User: Fold DNA mismatch repair protein MutS from Desulfolithobacter dissulfuricans.
Amino acid sequence: MTPMLRQYLEIKEQYKDTILFYRMGDFYEMFFDDAITASRVLGITLTSRSAKDDTNKVPMCGVPYHAVSSYLGKMVRAGYRVAICEQTEDPRQARGIVKREVVRVVTPGVTTEEQILDEKSNCYVCGLVLDKQKKSKVAGLSFLDVSTGEFLVCEHQVDQEYSQVTDELTRMMPAELLLPESLEEPLAPLLDTLTTLLPGLCITWRADLQFDRDTAHTCLTEHFKTSGLEGFGCSDLHTGIRAAGGLLLYIQETQKTDLSHIRRIASLSRGEHLIIDDASRRNLELTETIIGGKREGSLLSVLDLTRTPMGARLLRQRLLFPLQDRSRIQARLDAIQQLLVDPGIRRRLREILDSIYDLERLCSRLSLGQGNARDMTSLKISLARLPEMKEILLELGSGLLFAIGTELDLLTDLYELIHRAIREDAPVSLREGNLIREGYHDELDELLVLVRDGKQLILALEEKERQRTGIPKLKVGYNKVFGYFFEISKIHADKVPEDFIRKQTLVNAERFITPDLKELENRISTAQERRLELEYELFLEIRRQIASHSGRLLATASGIARVDVLCSLAEASHRYHWIKPKLTAGSAITIIEGRHPVIERSLEPGRFVPNDVHLDQETNELLIITGPNMAGKSTVLRQTALLVLMAHIGCFVPADRAEICLVDRIFTRVGAMDDLRRGQSTFMVEMNETANILNNATDRSLVILDEIGRGTSTYDGLAIAWAVAEELADKNGRGVKTLFATHYHELTELARTHTRIQNYSIAVREWNDSIIFLHKLVKGATNRSYGIQVAGLAGVPAHVVKRAHEILKDIEEGEWQKSRQKVRDRKKQPAEKENSTTSQPCQLPLFAPGEDKLHRFLKEIDPDELTPREALNLLYEARKLLSERGRN
Assistant:
């Protein structure tokens, strides 16, 4: 066991759950099990130390330090934590083994590496704590994005299914979850759910002491340098503070550096935002598609025309956190209108935004001591565009954009510091020099002259001594023994000054040194080394100066992101011909010629069929929508929810006119799939989502339901759908605004008994035994689903479609039972014997008998209009029809 391996194992003992990257010269080395794991994940060669001794081989592998970021990305994406162990003393000055220590730990949720992060999404690490209070259990959650400094805290009531906690986690999508060790058993059901909903989530268990209330409070107040947390508006979130304090402790331990860019902690209040649960977010495909989980095809992909990563992340947040504050929404809508009225301003702003880098993550890297000179150059380029942006915003004279412009800090002092100090061609490495401009630091300027012009300085001293001594042949020489020296021929020996020191005598000449020559030689020989050291020191000092202004930097970044989002939404509104919605104080939603914002983009211009929708609390509260599959029922449902949501984030909408009231929640139950990993069938998933809607919807909510009850038998499904519709129409005496698409045509009868329920259908046109979808929502119900025609359009073989038509005709004419008996008789083998002693459970037939002649005859009789004689004749006629049916 060498001293180096002993040191490695001592450090590894402190970081057992990580892969240790151990710095050795120009490489990070890994040994033992870490080497085996890393070589497999990174695809690099596994070698060994002590190769001559086959019984004591130590597995090892390594990666070059200058390319470590790409290897870190691979390890973290594979779910591993990596501890970066650096040399903390100069190997030339070390006695024995060089001192080393871990300088930071990179985890899936705690990283600033560009190769790991998605520039358009936040990378959160979440702390979660449970607290049993007097009457209920409360979950405290805290979210922190180290790469941007965003720090959030909230609390939720805990039910048996952890529904609110699950909704929050799936909305924020953390990459890593911190949990107290004591919760491993109580949280097992939640973790099972999260492994399905958030694949790849990294779970980190921490000692309970890390989440102690006093420890957490002290950690937060010391970091923010405050006496309490009242100024952040979260002092009453006691369980949330435990989660936030434990989370901050974890970040401090892993980053081992100043976290000055984390400037504040904000309360994540549900009351301020329109709530959309996880199922509804997935059904509406807000940020990713249901199938494949792709960004392309989601609402976000249509809205996101941002030019900066900061703007892209903010737009995503706004989509997940729609507002309920009418004044704030209106301010956003008015700002978009300003940008549409003056396209020149919008164009100029977007051109400026194009050249602005990710200030939030630049600030974080610089604050965490990981930023390089190129980061500073990117920061300078970005800051250079701020005066022009501010000037344009102030031209608007009023409104939200004008307010952002008045508050925009140009950070002129930071721009000038970087401009004066940092070379534009500076390399990524901080140890190679060429970082600092000439003219910034006097000593460095002298060193640069020595490095660049050392030979000329020697020659200048030579000429100076010639002039002083009057020896014309005096010249400077050099060898490895004496270094630089003056060589003078013996014929001029009488002219040698007293301050010349004889070092060597030759046949025809003598060699001398002087104090000035030795001083200059020493300065030249050490200039390069001192230059590299001084440039590094100066760079670190400049980086510290910039980091000390992280609050200002982040505030400016926030203003730029807000401008970017407004410009993006204005550009989308211009390109796609969207209109400004009117926010009303009432309870009605009216959309004229509304269009689906995503589907419309996938079709040729003019192909999408727009539709009108009106919902209110009086006569149009619940719309029963019938019609065939593929006709567009789901599209109408989803587009209504999306347009309402877009209005709540302060975005124009695809419609000719839109008057939208504020809603508190949007619920959707559109389609379902088995969740076998959680032991839930399609129908169970459907009922869970339906139960959530019925239990939590209010008269201010918007509910979208598609095909309730289709996952079970016809009669059960119809009964459930009927009861759900009645409940939504009558809930708390006011009901819930609902779009209810169904194939149960019996539900259309509800409109006769409930004044707030209306029937609508999707229009189709029949043509040559086929149908043409008109995709138009029209008033009134339909009693046909055209399923067989749709099957034909889907490519079901013609003979199967023909047989389906025959069976349907039998059903409609009441011949179904007889047709089934004929089929049984035809398939029954002569040798087959029925076991009459076995009684099998029977189920009601799927199809009720159709009308025969007797039924139609009786339906046409009006008893009030009959004379006694006519009634007697009709009775004989009915008896005759009954006899005929018996003979058949």
